[in-house]
Design a protein that fits this description.
The chain is mainly beta and 215 residues long. The protein is built from 1 helix and 5 strands, in the order H-E-E-E-E-E. It has a 5-stranded mixed β-barrel. The mean pLDDT is 88.
Length: 215
C-alpha cells in the first residue's frame, strides 16, 4: 500500500509487473515481489501475454486490473481482443487498415460488406468458394484475358448477346442445341464438315443459290 492509499483507503494505486501465467480470464502477475491476480480492464485492448510488463491499477476494494501493456518482445505478435461485439467508427472521416506484409479477415460465421461502391485492385486474386450466389441489375467486365475451368456450367437468362471478332469452340464429345428457330448468317462463307452429315425436315428442305453442287 502506497502513501495515497494509506491516507485514503479507497484511492487507487498504480504499479508495474510481469505476467507469469494466464488462468482463464485471470492474469497472475508478479509485481514488487508479490504475486497479484488481476483481470484485464476493458480499456486494455492489447491482450496481455506471458512475459509482458503491464501496468496495474489497485483499487481500494482489494481488486487489481491490468490497464495496459508497457513492454513486449518485439518479435511477439500483438493481439487486440475484446469480449463481445466490437465496433470501429469514424464519424467524420474514413478508416484505413494497412498491413505492410498482408492483411486477413477471418470469421467462422458471416462476413458482410455494405457500401455505396466497392473498389478492388490487385495484381492477382484467388477465390475458393463452395457456393456462389450473385444478384445484380447490371454486370460490366473489361478483361484482357479470361480463363474458366469447371466440371459443370449452367446458365439461365432471358436474353444473351455476345459480340466478338473471333470465337473458337472445341467440343470433344457431343453438342446439343434445342431452339424454336435457328438463324445462321455468314457474310462470306459457311462451311460444315463431317464424316456423316444428315439434314432432315418434316416439311421442306430448300437449297438456293446461283450454283448448287452436289458430289
Amino acid at each position: 500500500m502506497n502513501l495515497a492509499q494509506k491516507l485514503n483507503p479507497d484511492a487507487a494505486a498504480l504499479s508495474a509487473g510481469h505476467v507469469e501465467r494466464c488462468e482463464g480470464s485471470v492474469l497472475v502477475i508478479r509485481s514488487e515481489g508479490a504475486v497479484v491476480r488481476a483481470r484485464r480492464a476493458p480499456a486494455c485492448l492489447l491482450a496481455p501475454e506471458v512475459g509482458d510488463r503491464v501496468l496495474l491499477a489497485h483499487t481500494g476494494e482489494g481488486r487489481a486490473y491490468v490497464l495496459s501493456v508497457l513492454e513486449r518482445d518485439e518479435e511477439a505478435p500483438h493481439r487486440w481482443t475484446a469480449d463481445g461485439d466490437v465496433s470501429i467508427e469514424a464519424r467524420a472521416g474514413r478508416v484505413d487498415v494497412v498491413g505492410e506484409t498482408g492483411a486477413a479477415v477471418r470469421s467462422p460465421a458471416e462476413v458482410a460488406v455494405q457500401a455505396k461502391s466497392i473498389s478492388l485492385r490487385s495484381k492477382a486474386a484467388k477465390f475458393a468458394i463452395g457456393k456462389l450466389g450473385l444478384i445484380g441489375e447490371e454486370v460490366v467486365a473489361e478483361i484482357s484475358r479470361s480463363k474458366l475451368v469447371s466440371s459443370t456450367i449452367e446458365s439461365l437468362a432471358q436474353v444473351v448477346t455476345q459480340t466478338a471478332s473471333r470465337v473458337s469452340r472445341i467440343v470433344t464429345e457431343i453438342e446439343h442445341v434445342r431452339a424454336g428457330t435457328v438463324d445462321m448468317a455468314a457474310e462470306k462463307s459457311l462451311m460444315i464438315h463431317a464424316e456423316n452429315a444428315m439434314v432432315t425436315a418434316k416439311a421442306l428442305v430448300k437449297m438456293d443459290g446461283e450454283a448448287v453442287q452436289l458430289g
